[in-house]
Amino acid sequence: MHSLQCVLQVQRSLRWGPMASVSWLSLRMCMAHSSLSSTTCPNPERQEAGARKDFSSRLATGPTLQHFLRSASAPQEKLSSEVEDPPPYLTMDELLGRQRKVYLETYGCQMNVNDTEIAWSILQKSGYLRTSNLQEADVILLVTCSIREKAEQTIWNRLHQLKALKTRRLRSQVPLRIGILGCMAERLKEEILNREKMVDVLAGPDAYRDLPRLLAVAESGQQAANVLLSLDETYADVMPVQTSPSATSAFVSIMRGCDNMCTYCIVPFTRGRERSRPVASILEEVRKLSEQGLKEVTLLGQNVNSFRDNSEVQFNNAVSTNLSRGFTTNYKTKQGGLRFAHLLDQVSRVDPEMRIRFTSPHPKDFPDEVLQLIHERDNICKQIHLPAQSGSSRVLEAMRRGYSREAYVELVHHIREFIPGVSLSSDFIAGFCGETEEDHIQTVSLLREVQYNMGFLFAYSMRQKTRAYHRLKDDVPEEVKLRRLEELITVFREEATKANQTSVGCTQLVLVEGLSKRSATDLCGRNDGNLKVIFPDAEMEDVNNPGLRVRAQPGDYVLVQITSASSQTLKGHVLCRTTLKDSSTYC
């Protein structure tokens, strides 16, 4: 049977999308006339001519060149109550989910967790339902990661599993549609559609608003994709839907993309350039989360502390960005805008009983005003993620990190002087291009010198498109990478255990999350430093209601006296239920 294959360039107008962007569809169409019986063999020429005629008639009603030119003008701020018109080739009814059930799976970082909530918010408004049962899903969407090869291989393996599910789908049921969302869709693009014919939809990190349209196109049996990156998409007007109704904490995305262009990193190519949400929209989201009873928010961004809101014209002539001492950037110094210190100040004022965290920062963006705020505000957690990546200045230069080992260590000392008792975590890469045994030894020594409370360590995985891929050689053998990684992990655990054991005998404030995964008689929560704390589920005093005995519930603050510590967990016994305002943590 002949098929008509088309690749269309479709311009979305401002009438049905918040920003003018070009989206592409890869359509594989096999047209058949419903008027023919199953025993009739259709004429291929007539079938192809009919398909062309139908397709041409749809294009005739589509956008003209003048329509594109009008759409190219500067976008106006759209009222949230404004109803968008459908694209010219789809009806409003075709864009509706009609209560089809969506199953979402999330892989990778916290940004992907937040992206899942954004995607679901958009689909929910279009009439889709959410299901946690894979077997009853009409649409399966995988929110993917591309940071390492292993992360992508996990998705390929998952697609093979889902292929069997799609094949078994009864003809009497709505056809099962499968979509790849996020960084892997952005990196591989049409390679996914060509390699896995069972994938119906691709949507990059900046295309989640387009999901209803993409799924509508997929319903006709075509493959659809939008993998364009945006210079301004932040989803500021999309209120993420919390995926766990019993959650005590939430992620709030404040900026997207990254301008650092570290040689090893794929993020600038999968999530685009840095752009920040308006402060007002972030504060509104935090207030709503507070009203819902959540007790902790984590401000998210690929380079969260380089936040710069330029939406307020009066602040665009502000002074240049302050960097950590001894640090440089790979781009020109940015001028103006409301900076991270301003945002952190405002967010911490929304609810004194709500803890504030942020991740993932870059060490270059820790001016004293940020450190001062963390020190002063009780509800800003005294925990800083400080990604080092390597302990060798030579390797750091090859990575284009913008600092030396000496500058990094000086920053660590400065932070600890500013914020006594601060908990530090870091990222490290084992076996980067050209890393010698001496470079590795220097990374081991940095782990011992700083003595982090938490760490995230990985063997180097070269990614296409990165600067390292084009300019450096992945010359460290895999077995050497793995051996060095194991050595780093061993040293990290030794030092983290020592660091965490200083908490033994201390009384710490813990936000209760729920039952421990390993014991039905224990509860677990996290302390100010984001370490997991395990303690028995026992009756305790409520300091705000003297004489009342209570059991801790998720979302409660409790004081726990620490009795033992490992590299990853603290254990203790609970003293009382309290509030963040009334509590104090002492050794």
Automatic annotation (TrEMBL):
MTTase N-terminal domain span: 100-220
Domain TRAM: 501-576
The Radical SAM core domain, residue ranges: 244-498
Annotated InterPro entries: Elp3/MiaA/NifB-like_rSAM, Methylthiotransferase, Methylthiotransferase_CS, Methylthiotransferase_N, Methylthiotransferase_N_sf, MiaB_methiolase, rSAM, rSAM_horseshoe
Broad class of enzyme this protein falls into: transferase
EC number: 2.8.4.3
Example GO BP: regulation of protein metabolic process
GO cellular component: cytosol; mitochondrion
Keyword annotations of the record: 4Fe-4S, Iron, Iron-sulfur, Metal-binding, S-adenosyl-L-methionine
PROSITE patterns: MTTASE_N, MTTASE_RADICAL, RADICAL_SAM, TRAM
Reactions accelerated catalytically: N(6)-dimethylallyladenosine(37) in tRNA + (sulfur carrier)-SH + AH2 + 2 S-adenosyl-L-methionine = 2-methylsulfanyl-N(6)-dimethylallyladenosine(37) in tRNA + (sulfur carrier)-H + 5'-deoxyadenosine + L-methionine + A + S-adenosyl-L-homocysteine + 2 H(+)
Cofactor: [4Fe-4S] cluster
GO molecular function: 4 iron, 4 sulfur cluster binding; metal ion binding; tRNA-2-methylthio-N(6)-dimethylallyladenosine(37) synthase activity
Family stated for the protein in its record: Belongs to the methylthiotransferase family. MiaB subfamily.
Protein name: Mitochondrial tRNA methylthiotransferase CDK5RAP1
